[in-house]
Amino acid sequence: MKVADPCGCFPTGRHYPGIAHLLKVRAVGVASEIDAGSAWIDQPIAFVDVETTGRDPAGDRIIELGIVIGRSGEILTRYNWLIHPGRPIPAESTAIHGIKDADVEGKPSFAEVAEEILGCFKGAIPAAYNATFDRSFLLAELERVGMRPREPPPAMRREVDWVDPLTFARELYKNEESRALGDMAARLGISLEKAHRATDDAEAALQVLYALAKDPRVPRAYGGLIQEQRRLVRQQDEARKFWRKAPAAAPPPTSKPS
């Protein structure tokens, strides 16, 4: 969204009559094709979840990808792909999501379904729970197969922020011990029958986002939501610098922090 500067003045404070309409700003982090002033809940949202062979997007691979499209608080469409990673699935990863080599035998490679996956994101606000994880894997896979469409969807553009309900859960439920997806879903009365399966996790996370939207501290405007999320991320990152934790065992390979 482009918004005219109401004062028509330069940073010096000096007023220049008649030029306010020439001074434009763009909301940072929003998809340009979606009105930043509109209610984000009324816009299509493509909620993503991936299951992988490990935690490193540079070396590990996606083995399942789910996308759930929502709008106005309702689920519109669900998509799911089992993907052959081109390598054995480590036992420690299978212990998390339950996906075995036999489950992906004969399934397409990421390259074979990349175009189909990208089509689901067209014109939609991208979102994921602990979005850094899912986004990094998706972009790494797209880069790996050389997918560079002339008009990439918002999810593929690095200047577009993904909505991440975990950021808001950490703020609104800061006194709770855990804001992991399963715990947040249970807390909000949202069903999650098959945890750590891509489409089930994506749908539950979208429902969590819609539930959090009822809190007045969550901005309704798309641009406002992204700016508040950016502020909270900076605040939470700063707080982590002062955390002092005793050494702990490394987390499971595909676990997502709360």
From TrEMBL:
Domain Exonuclease, first and last residues per copy: 44-218
CDD domains for this protein: DEDDh
Record-listed E.C. numbers: 2.7.7.7
Cellular-component GO terms for this entry: cytosol
Composition skew (Pro residues), residue ranges: 249-258
Region (Disordered): 237-258
Entry's Gene Ontology BP terms: DNA replication proofreading
Root EC class: transferase
Coiled coil: none
SUPFAM superfamilies associated with the record: Ribonuclease H-like
Oligomeric and partner information: DNA polymerase III contains a core (composed of alpha, epsilon and theta chains) that associates with a tau subunit. This core dimerizes to form the POLIII' complex. PolIII' associates with the gamma complex (composed of gamma, delta, delta', psi and chi chains) and with the beta chain to form the complete DNA polymerase III complex.
Protein role: DNA polymerase III is a complex, multichain enzyme responsible for most of the replicative synthesis in bacteria. The epsilon subunit contain the editing function and is a proofreading 3'-5' exonuclease.
Record protein name field: DNA polymerase III, epsilon subunit
Organism per entry: Sorangium cellulosum (strain So ce56) (Polyangium cellulosum (strain So ce56))
